[in-house]
Amino acid sequence: MKFTSKLLVSSVFVFVFCAAAQSQEADLVLRNGVIWTVDEALPKAESIATLRDKIIYVGDESGVRQHIGQNTRVIDLGGKLVVPGFNDNHVHFEGTGRLLYGLNLLDVSNAALFAERIREVHERYAAGTWITGGDWSAYETWAANDVAEAGRQVNPDDMYGNLFLPNKSMIDSFTKDRPVLVRRFDRKVYLANSAALERAGIRKGMPDPEGIAVERDRSGEPTGALFNPVAGAVESTVLVQDNVRLLFEEHIPEPSREQRTAETLRAWEQMKSVGVTSYSDVTSAPIQVDIYQELKDKGLMTARVRYRPPLDQWESMNALGIHVGFGDEWIRYGAVKAWIDGIMGNSSARFYEPYTHNPSSRGIWRDIMFPFERSPDNPEDMQSRLERLALQADAHDIQLTVHAIGDEANGYLMDMVERLIEKNGERDRRFRLVHAQVMTDRDIERAGRMGVVMEVQPYHTSDDMRWMEERIGRERSRGAYAFRRMWDAGSVVSFGSDSPGTNASRYYLNPLLGIYAAVTRKTLSGAPEGGWFPQEKLTVEQAIQGYTLNTAYAAYEEDIKGSLTVGKLGDFVVLSDNLLTMNPDNIKDVKVLTTVVGGKVVYEAP
Fold first, then answer.
1. Structure pTM?
2. What is the CATH number of the domain that holds 151?
3. Is residue 412 part of a domain?
4. Which UniProt keywords apply (predicted)?
5. Is residue 262 part of a domain?
6. How far is Cα 108 from Cα 117, in angstroms, rounded to an integer?
7. Closest CA to 64 of 37, 46, 38, 39
């Protein structure tokens, strides 16, 4: 069954709803605009009206007048563009909230800004909460002559890079009662203040903890800089083990419920400002679900969530009766997540052939692949742990979503989906191939034929194109982020952000950056001219659909969201510029003016 025909399942409901809503007074009306509906039956309109949380009218100016009453809020759009609320298919919500509410040192590489950022967090955090994370020097480096300061004994081998090295004296004066343990982006170096050092027993006159090099001044006093072991030549030093984290983890308490709640609200604030009205949460702790429910009960939710625990929790979900579609319009469950290989950033994605820049490596398989066991159906066949769990979850109507980056990882999953279909039968399973970053032509074709949902993050293209060909060569790079071929092969291409990103790369929640990447295939600085593998560009209309209707479809929610259709939820955004007619190179600069969730205005730009 084609994607478009599946959308007709709810057509009877919409017809009945439309008939009942013909003369109702609306709570909210937006008029005199360009409404891009992502609805094939009525692609463009001038006005839209909502009552309570549903859309009751989409059409021209004359028709919306009957819905305007004394209590209707009317917004004159002045020709601005309205699109469905953006639906992010892949958010590491816990990490996103922690970065936004907590400490962000990614762009920090000097003492003044280092102290300023930590002071800001110190003044915001509750007493007793550790300040952690940070990832300083991700974007900038110090000049070589700035590293050595008077009284400091710099590591003589310079094995840790010529980067900014902070000192506890920069922050001790205002954090004396609060432990601080922050890290450099590569985790090779940490900075602990005096309160944190004391808890770990790192003092003057005491030996260094095993596996950690403690920097000390001339008197032997620890400066706060702690070095993890590294191996390799200076040009390619790699982290052996994060001994600093291991030493401190027993001292650092889990974030309090109050802290997590504050982080949740801060993440939603960011989502509102960029028009994200729905998202899939892929990694948060189980307590996050309880916080979602509490905030929903208080009427504080401003974004709808699809929560995905790890695959190995499928039996617990099944015992609770959680399957596809479980939940309500705010919080839904029924899907699980697994990881099959590594990532491109550290060259651990799994490929058929070795990396171009490292011929000794083809990447890794994640732990869930092991052990390989004999198949219960055919003892001659060996089956990975991943496939055993996937077959079981799939048989119990739980949706599968699996991370795959390299071409061999994606190829294995296409083989696995074929076996899922063979053993569990044909059905509407909507297997979500997460990232699908590098694929062969054969696997792109197979994915389309089997109805696989491509859960991709287009901003990865802008970020990774700068070094992808160095890692895997020009020919294999042709299969990287092949959105046009995926679309044309018949896959449903769904978009998201992968926020907040990795140690050295920030993946922003802003969907407009993803749309920009999908239609231009350029970096944010506008390179290369014409775009990277420009034959894989999507149209603006397709990119909007990828961030709206297609992600709703990926979550079995296309009947309630994803297009501006009468009877669906009133989730939409007003943009500063018309994406449909503007120069695509400028899409990255477009702003969200208004965000509406469930018929309520939750954000208006200053």
1. 0.91
2. 3.10.310
3. yes
4. Signal
5. yes
6. 9
7. 46
Could you tell me if 504 and 97 are in contact, meaning their C-beta atoms sit under 8 angstroms apart?
no
Pairing of strands 131-136, 180-184: parallel
Q: Is 333 exposed, middle or buried (0-12, 13-18, 19+ CB in 10 A)?
A: buried
Confirm if 100 and 270 have CB atoms less than 8 A apart: yes
Cis peptide before 253 (omega within 30 of 0): no
Shared domain check, 486 and 356: yes
Nearest Cα neighbor of 458 from 493, 502, 500, 503 is 493
pLDDT < 50 positions in the chain: 1-2, 4-14, 16, 141-158, 233-236
Q: State what percent of residues in the chain have pLDDT above 70.
A: 91
CB-count exposure of residue 143 (10 Å: 0-12, 13-18, 19+): exposed
Residues 532, 513, single domain; the answer is yes
Number of domains in the chain: 3
Contact 379, 503 (CB under 8 A): no
By residue range, what is the domain housing residue 135? 130-248
Name 132's bridge partners.
181
Rounded alpha-carbon distances, angstroms, from residue 139 to 105, 144, 589? 9, 16, 21
Cα of first residue to Cα of last residue in the chain, in angstroms, is 46
Token pair 């463009």: residue: 44
CB 29 within 8 A of CB 49: yes
Alpha helix locations (H) across 200-341?
Answer: 243-248, 257-273, 287-297, 314-319
Q: Which amino acid is at 210?
A: E
512 and 428 in a single domain? The answer is yes
The conformation of residue 502, written as its DSSP 8-state character, comes to -
